[in-house]
Amino acid sequence: MGLFMIIFTLIGGITLSAQSSINGTFSRKAGTIETTLLTFLTGTMFLTIFILFFGSGNILALLEAPKWQLSAAFLGTMYLLFTVIAVPRIGVIATNIAGIAGQLVIGLIIDHFGWFNSLVIELDIKRVFALLFMVISLYFIYKGNKRTSDDTVA
């Protein structure tokens, strides 16, 4: 099951990168906020159909959730908006690595302190090195992108 979840998430990452690239290009014509809106409207329609045919939860439970848990929807919207803004300026890979580095930073903090009822996983040297390598890769990717764009302009 673990390998299946890794493959499943890997495919999710592939679709996210494709979406980032397409949205970044589309935002030049339609606008950043408009592109983000289109993504969420399409997602809403798609998920409404999925809920109608495959949903087994209780949609009304959203009304009973603690307000702080509803902030996740806003955070997801902000992530998509920031991605749509960043891709045309720094490229898909730099945008995605920066996003992953941000996820690692907050993930390490959440795990270490057990925030949001998560598992407590102590910060260790392996995790610190993982973050360090991610930041180093972001540096090299960004510098490579910048040099390539400078060469193109010249």
UniProtKB/TrEMBL annotation:
It holds the Pfam family DMT_YdcZ. One of its GO terms (cellular component) is plasma membrane. InterPro entries: YdcZ. The keyword Transmembrane applies. Keywords: Membrane, Transmembrane, Transmembrane helix. The keyword Endoplasmic reticulum does not apply. This is DMT family transporter. It comes from Psychrobacillus lasiicapitis.
